[in-house]
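1st attempt posting a full record on here, be nice pls
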Amino acid sequence: MPFEELDLAAFAVCLTCGGLRDGAPREQRCRCQPRTPDWEQQWQGQDIAGDLDLCLLCVRNTVTTRTRWSWLGCESCRHVSQVVGERYGHRSALPLGRHSIMNGDVVQLAASTAEVVGSLMAATRHWNALRDWREAEFNRLAELPRAAGPTLPLVEWQQWWPPSLGASVDAFDRYGVVPVPADLTSLRQAQTWFRSSVR
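the predicted structure (as tokens):
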């Protein structure tokens, strides 16, 4: 099912673990919910048992999650990462792809075992750091909505915390690994607009 056909109104954000649940026509479950054989059956033939998740960086926008080639970061966060990465001569500043090849981590065929292991370990460290960030950022954003109950409809989450280029720049900057250079005017203007409009 293409992303455009997913009904975002059918999804809810679990305010405990930060995962998306419910959905239609297939039921998606967050980490807090049991995964039964009957439930897993609906995901046969798909790499990942889910259609949608929150962006790993801004935790506001959504990404599709069906395959091992799906992105962990939303389109606007990937745009910021690419623009900043290109400034420093890289393909992307942050590893926002689920597969290392998506992040430009290609080990040459002639590489030694030590080089291959080193590359994999570096990629794992980057992903673990991003997952730690995602958990902390989610808990920061979820603090106020948690008063409403254990879950919140995704559309309401995005009303609380609207996805935008400015939100992506802000998250990227606060993540702090590679700050957005001051002279990237279009990104800085988006961030300035975002900070002036945030609740």
